[in-house]
Write a structure and sequence with these properties.
- The structure is a homodimer.
- Chain A is an alpha/beta fold and about 500 residues long.
- The first copy, chain A, has 2 domains: about 250 residues, NAD(P)-binding Rossmann-like Domain (Rossmann fold); about 150 residues, NAD(P)-binding Rossmann-like Domain (Rossmann fold).
- The first copy, chain A, contains 18 helices and 17 strands.
- In chain A, the strands form 4 sheets. An 8-stranded mixed β-sheet of chain A has the order 3-2-1-4-7-8-9-10, sandwiched between helices. A 5-stranded parallel β-sheet of chain A has the order 12-11-15-16-17, with helices on both faces.
- In chain A, helix 8 links the parallel strand 9 and strand 10.
- In chain A, helix 13 packs across helix 14.
- The first copy, chain A, is globular and about 75 Å long.
- Chain A starts with 20 loop residues before the first helix and ends in a 13-residue tail after the last strand.
- The interface between A and B is large, with 63 and 63 residues.
């Protein structure tokens, strides 16, 4: 979300002040005849899910996005209604879909929970967070799952929805949540309003959204796994998904119950987190043994069964891999009374959280004290060619460098303001070079940095120390750079990659 | 190796008694003009590597297989020379290649280390073992790498080889071994014989042999990673591999040094071991949560990046995955003075070693005491459609059942004698059924067991309890069987899969 540069529109009012009945009614009357989809939560998933629903493959819905009234959402909601989509995305389809919905007038954003009452389908895309307690090196000591916000969101739905609605949960939840949390809450709310509890449908289908150049396609053109708390719920979920996702090319897979699909989601992400953690350990080993882990991984990836072996890197970020394994382990104990943790999966989070600390230690080890040094950080997002800085490992890495009293500048083509660090990020490389850096760190795998012309521009001037923490540079670039500069690559032994002009 | 049914040929003589000079000389004169390849070690890799070399894609070698004089090898070597290939393999190419070499007369087996002296190329395929100390549940407490046999094998080469030989190590070794162990030993032996030490070539290229229906192809038609201790060694290794492997369709990847390729091998296998261990934890969780992990894994595997996610199972066996992660961790500390273990990789071995114990516990949990029960075990090898019982998890599982005083029968289409357990294995299913089993366990994923006609034959009679520990049965088979029998599937909640005629 890139809103901070907009003018301050004042503090939000209390929720009771946001009576949007008039706007909602007007919107619905303009969209008469269309079924109504309400998307709950307008974050990185919900905002784009709203666009996808407003541009369905086989049905044109009236779509209302609802979020809680706080300062950030205040700007976001105003922005959506005022004709500026509040995501700084690299996917032209985002703007295409948004402009379509403006033209058709079938997208509205609001705080007013009244919207749920008009919904045929409610898609739940709210956050469900994990609180981690870690040591200074990132070693995970403890964690807890915070269900309060999620429960409140479901309660609001139950307070306003009609009894025939389809509630489709997309939020990543501890497996068991739809059956053990969502259904009881909605049942209770409907009962208290004197409504039937056997008419609504409750489905679960997890998204695999990937912010970046394929943002829309990562929802619309991507296989889906889904389920319902009963057969009619699963049928309704399937029918709805078929109207918004291109199921001609993307498989829809039904699982037996909502616990199964909830587990599929966290298993999928835990698998990836574990494979990344695996690469972490071997990175350290490769450095010690003086070999190049990138070469080794590339050699192994020739084998099809091993093609998704991970490369070394600076760490794991984003909203999913940093917490999903913990949701699973929490569910195992809390919902299913297990005596056992999911040790490997928990450990993967801990190992991955330590990666930026490893990277910092290596930097100091190879290039010495950073005190007073001018350091340029290339890339602050957690992933290549994406402007998402949530839980970016670069944050931990940068904080450690800052403690050494280094002088820093940040560059990222996709981030102009680093929200979590509350600082400016340059998008112009020449401004960064004017800083006359002594150390340049590659910390996000943006394709801009891999271009020969970028490398030439960056390193044409005086000798500089280069720390590639993310495998940005290829062999040839390293060899070329190594003839003039000092180059060190995370996951590779330094004696091996032209370090110190060898 | 399936030799136990052959007649006892008597105790082997001492090595000094095996003067095979005459046979070797005769063999070489018959094969005059051909370059000589000596394969050291005639186990599951070496025996088949000898066939591949004797049937090179672009060169016809004279191939001599050498192994140590012990009772097992005595039978094996005699068998090779007498026209009976000593492997009970499911790959017709094995017999085709063996018969070709018989016709051409370019394959000899011997104990006599004199053979190394005639070699242009020596391929090292001897074992390098790990000793594990584990708790009764398979929990790994300690381990050590036994280099003695390997060092002796290399010393023998150094004692006999000429100074221009190419020594190609294929054995899976702790990374660093070629530089830190093999080269010093050969240098020393050559020096002591007054020979030059800068002329021989030393390469490393690991095999990816998979006993089974693609046994030969898993060497000949499979990508390879290789290296040498110097450029000329790497060149010689490449040139040799090109003569025996179909490099038109299979990539040859050169890495920078032997430590890199040695690391690639153990990383590759540690990756797989870790992914299997990952599935183990989630199997237990799925059982507790009452969902079917096979369904979940299948749903996730639709996603290409997750297509090699592992299924639940009874355990990990075979010679590689059960030890290779430990070789790596050992090397990290012993060869590269690291303070750190490869914790995740070590842990994967421990988790996997506990799998058959989990399976046994589940069996007792769902079907009660096994005392005096008639139990049939379907499949004793460690892998589907393979007759390899080395470190089979079924062994641990069966030993636990035996302790319960159950009455057991074993069936396996690929194993007639279970060497490690020293017992007979039936190949005829009807004999097993005559036993009138109360419990039938699927413990190896042989395709025979997946056939509808097998299932019909097995379960047409009286009611029986079925324990599928390896995902042999598909959904439809489970549903059909569940209407008459009690079915429990490892990795699935029992409430979920038609258990107890639900």
């Amino acid at each position: 979300m890139n809103l901070s540069k907009q003018s301050n529109l004042g503090k939000p009012k209390k929720i009771s002040d946001f009576d949007d009945r008039e706007a909602i009614t007007e919107f619905l009357s303009k969209n008469e005849g269309k079924r109504v989809v309400v998307v709950q939560g307008l974050g990185f998933v919900g905002a784009v899910m709203a666009l996808v629903c407003a541009n369905g493959v086989s049905e044109e819905y009236a779509v209302i996005g609802v979020d809680l009234p706080d300062e950030k959402n205040f700007l976001k909601i105003k922005s959506i209604n005022d004709g500026v989509f509040p995501l700084n995305a690299d996917d032209p389809k985002i703007y295409e879909f948004y402009n379509n919905s403006l033209e058709k007038g079938n997208l509205l954003a609001t705080y007013d929970p009244l919207a749920y009452g008009f919904a045929d389908v409610i898609v739940v895309d709210v956050n469900l967070d994990v609180e981690k307690v870690s040591s200074s090196t990132g070693n995970l000591k403890n964690f807890d799952v915070d269900l309060d916000n999620f429960k409140n969101a479901i309660k609001t739905i139950g307070t306003y929805c009609h009894e025939n609605v389809l509630v489709l949960v997309e939020t990543t939840v501890p497996p068991g949540t739809c059956e053990k949390i969502v259904k009881p809450i909605i049942d209770k709310e409907l009962s208290e309003r004197g409504l039937k509890v056997d008419r609504y449908k409750l489905g679960h289908s997890y998204e695999r959204v990937m912010p970046g150049p394929e943002y829309i396609n990562s929802i619309r053109e991507f296989p889906r796994v889904y389920s319902g708390i009963n057969d009619s719920s699963a049928d309704a979920t399937e029918a709805f998904l078929k109207t918004i996702i291109n199921t001609e090319t993307c498989a829809l897979t039904r699982l037996e119950n909502t616990t199964a699909t909830e587990m599929a989601k966290v298993l999928e992400n835990s698998y990836r987190a574990t494979n990344i953690a695996f690469a972490v350990e071997w990175s350290r080993y490769a450095e010690e043994a003086g070999v190049d882990l990138y070469d080794i991984v590339n050699a192994i990836r020739v084998r099809k069964t091993h093609a998704n072996l991970m490369y070394p890197g600076i760490g794991v970020g984003g909203y999913c891999l940093t917490k999903d394994p913990l949701l699973a382990s929490w569910s195992r104990k809390e919902f299913f009374d297990s005596d056992s943790d999911l040790d490997m999966s928990i450990n993967s989070v801990s190992v991955n959280d330590q990666m930026p600390v490893f990277a910092f230690n290596r930097l100091v080890q190879v290039f010495g004290s950073l005190q007073g040094k001018r350091v340029v950080i290339l890339g602050v997002s957690y992933r290549g060619d994406v402007g998402d800085t949530r839980f970016s490992p670069v944050e931990v890495f940068v904080n450690l460098i800052q403690k050494e009293d280094a002088l820093m500048r940040f560059h990222d083509p996709y981030v102009s303001n680093w929200e979590e660090q509350d600082c400016e990020v340059e998008s112009d490389l020449s401004l960064v070079l004017d800083f006359n850096p002594e150390i340049i760190v590659f910390s996000a795998g943006h394709s801009l940095y891999k271009k020969d012309e970028t490398i030439e521009a960056l390193f044409s001037l005086s000798e500089v120390k280069i720390f590639d923490a993310i495998g940005t540079l290829n062999k040839e670039q390293i060899l070329t750079l190594g003839s003039k500069h000092k180059v060190s690559v995370l996951g590779c032994g330094d004696e091996n990659i032209n370090f110190c002009n060898k």
